[in-house]
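TODO from last week: model Ubiquitin-like domain-containing protein.
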Amino acid sequence: MQITVQKPTGKQITLDVDSSESVQSVKQKIQSKEGIAKDQQRLFYQDTPLQQGGRSLQDYAIRTNSLLQLKIDLKIYLQLINSEIYTFIIDPAEKMSVLKQKIQDKLNIPVEKQHIIHRGIDVSGDFPLSNYMYDENTYNTIIKLRGY
């Protein structure tokens, strides 16, 4: 059977699948076809998130010509001044404050001392990450913390 997967940009892709296929298998097909890493994909059917854990398409009543929504998490590589690199995976709709809190939780760098630089620009404000570093072709990005 064929299903359609709609990317965040609105672009749709068609996949040939079997109803007994797992969600993980569908993610693998998307990775092969579109180059989007499986761990960054979140699939939804009629606003219901599709869980991996061995569940199949038929478990969600997905049939021929069903439309799945694909949300893509942003993989952020944080490079410190000492060249150490840390990885964060976050929803592009999240605000910069969420990323800063994750940095604080993981690295114990206080939010108020973080100065994030992306593409040579000091990023300030608390807008969604998609405003700063997300477009149709960018799901991975490198940022730096000034002074750390």
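Done. The helical segments are 23-34, 96-107, 129-133.
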